[in-house]
Amino acid sequence: MIQISLEGRTALVTGASGGLGSAIALTLAQAGATVAVHYRSGQAQAESVVTAIKAIGGRAQAFSADLSDHQAAIGLVQDVDRAFGSVDILVNNAGMDGTCAVVGEDDPQRWQEVLAVDLIGPYHCARAALAAMQKNARGVIINVTSVHEFIPWKGYSAYTTAKAGLSMFTKTLAQENADKGIRVLAVAPGAIQTPINEPVWSDPESLKDLDEKIAMGRLGKPSEIAHVVTFLASDLASYITGTTVAVDGGMLIYPEFRHGG
At what angle do helices 157-177 and 108-115 cross, to 10 degrees? Predict the structure, then answer.
């Protein structure tokens, strides 16, 4: 029987207080990892994730930091190291899509804020975690991007730009560290049913429109992303690096074309 085991490894999951992050944190813990549950705001939610992990016999602690700040990212990695030992698995999950506005009608400051969270934050965290990973000749960095690293999205140019940039950062970082025992990957979720997009899936008309954009005809579950992340973090994926794994129910195969062009 093949089993995924992350026993003896410490995982830092950013933005783990809810949604995809909490599912990823819990699933990594189920595989045996010690989990650092990062949050920027929402301490109560982060602590509830920690409680859930401890309830299944896992080890976890909540940590707060503003990851758009380089020193804060360094401090976070140092805090995790003091609590659990060096970070073996980094999941850069924290992100935001920002306010919908086409370029020219948008707010440049808000545009930069999205890049600070979605692209600069993962850079800071990866840079902070790399030193220990290189020293130990072992580590996995998984960046959560989006199908919008491939697909444009009107009104969300900051988000799509950040996710596309994070994809190329993933490839470059993988290239730089492939001979050091460090794998770097991206996971690109499609439309996943989380509280942040409840206004879409709770409305029958908007849900129907969204489902038609997905070949499998349904939204994904947070656990379906978490399972892929956990697999990629494990030794079962030891020969995979520098690529994006899309977990999108077939959104990227353009299901609207199955009836002809």
Answer: 30
**CA 68/CA 79 separation, integer angstroms:** 17
Q: Which residues contact 189 (CB under 8 A, 6 or more apart)?
A: 20, 144, 146, 147, 220, 225, 247, 248
| Residue pair 166/145 in contact by the 8 Å Cβ criterion | yes
- Token pair belonging to 163: 């996710």
Q: Specify whether the CB–CB gap between 20 and 225 falls below 8 A.
A: yes
Which sign, positive or negative, has the C-alpha torsion 119, 121, 127, 133?
A: negative
Specify the pTM. 0.96
For residue 220, the 8-state DSSP code is B
Contacts of residue 22, Cβ cutoff 8 Å, sequence gap at least 6: 16, 37, 45, 49, 52, 222
Q: How far apart are CA 100 and CA 63, in angstroms?
A: 30
Tens digit of each residue's pLDDT (9 = 90 or more) over 205-224: 888 888 889 999 999 999 99
> Does the annotation count 159 as an active-site position?
yes
Which residue's structure tokens are 């992050």?
A: 21
Over residues 111-155, the pLDDT tens digits come to 999 999 999 999 999 999 999 999 999 999 999 999 999 999 999
Topology adopted by domain 10-245: Rossmann fold (3.40.50)
Residue 156 DSSP SS3: coil
Catalytic residue among 39, 123, 156, 159: 159
Q: How far apart are CA 36 and CA 65, in angstroms?
A: 12
The residue type at 19: G
